[in-house]
Write a structure and sequence with these properties.
Layout: H1 12-17, H2 34-48, H3 55-62, H4 66-69, H5 76-87, H6 100-117, H7 133-145, H8 153-177, H9 191-198, H10 205-212, H11 222-243
Helix pairs in contact: 2-3, 2-5, 6-7, 6-8, 8-11
């Protein structure tokens, strides 16, 4: 491992998340650590949202001063990188079946469940491809699922981008709609009823047919919707694989 003085020419946040720089020694009470700071940051973001996250807010949650945090993380952006990597720790471990479709489905749902548990993650700007340890382990596990298929490396990465886009889109939509949050209870259940009040069947016959099927009746099928979208995407991947055999 590089010493604290080694110049890796990497962003500070990347050095921090990969442990490529030295950490300060703990104080006499051994009360503060990088892991504890990151956990506190995740807890603040989970509870209050990303807008509430600040070095001072995290320090207050731990019961210390903001200045003491800067011995471990140099800036809020660095803390965010560490937090995102921390919540991805559970995304890449699956009970591998050896069947590419089943394994990719497990990985996709792991990712989705992580984003739903930690909705603030989708508000963190994506500034480049995966670079943190746990995100890369998810990518490695995804590529391993496709081992043995005739897909090229470029095609495998394209499949991962497709799956990840579906996951992120579903998570973002649910967060934007704020399904299940107290202040938004009643929004989705009333949508179908509202449309019936507004729509003239003569002008909106197709929408009325959809309404009659109960499509807009809220019954918490968001995960079913995601499953349907994922299955259709994987159908396309399966067709590509078969075409190359």
């Amino acid at each position: 491992m590089p010493s604290e003085e080694t110049d890796t020419s990497l962003p500070a946040s990347v050095e921090a998340v990969w442990g490529l720089r030295g950490r300060p020694a703990r104080g006499p009470k051994r009360a503060l650590s990088l892991e504890r700071i990151v956990a506190a940051g995740v807890a603040v973001a989970d509870r209050e949202g990303l807008d509430a996250l600040s070095m001072s807010r995290v320090a207050n949650a731990i019961g210390t001063s903001a200045m003491s945090l800067y011995r471990y993380v140099s800036a809020k952006d660095e803390l965010l990188t560490l937090m995102v990597d921390a919540v991805y720790a559970d995304t890449w471990t699956i009970a591998a079946t050896g069947r590419w479709r089943a394994d990719l489905t497990q990985l996709a749902f792991n990712n989705l469940h992580t984003l739903r548990r930690h909705p603030w993650v989708v508000r963190v700007p994506v500034t480049g491809p995966p670079i943190t340890p746990h995100q890369l382990r998810w990518l490695e596990a995804s590529l391993a699922a496709l081992r043995g298929t005739p897909l090229s490396g470029k095609e495998k990465i394209a499949v991962m981008l497709l799956v990840n886009s579906l996951v992120r889109n579903d998570a973002t939509l649910m967060i934007d709609l704020r399904v299940g949050e107290p202040e938004s209870e009643g929004k989705l259940p009333d949508y179908g009823k509202t449309l019936r009040l507004l729509l003239d069947p003569k002008h909106f016959p197709e929408l009325i047919d959809v309404l009659d099927e109960g499509v807009f009746d809220y019954d918490d099928t968001s995960e079913q919707d995601f499953s349907w979208s994922l299955e259709r995407a994987l159908d396309g991947v399966a067709a590509l694989i078969e075409s190359k055999r």
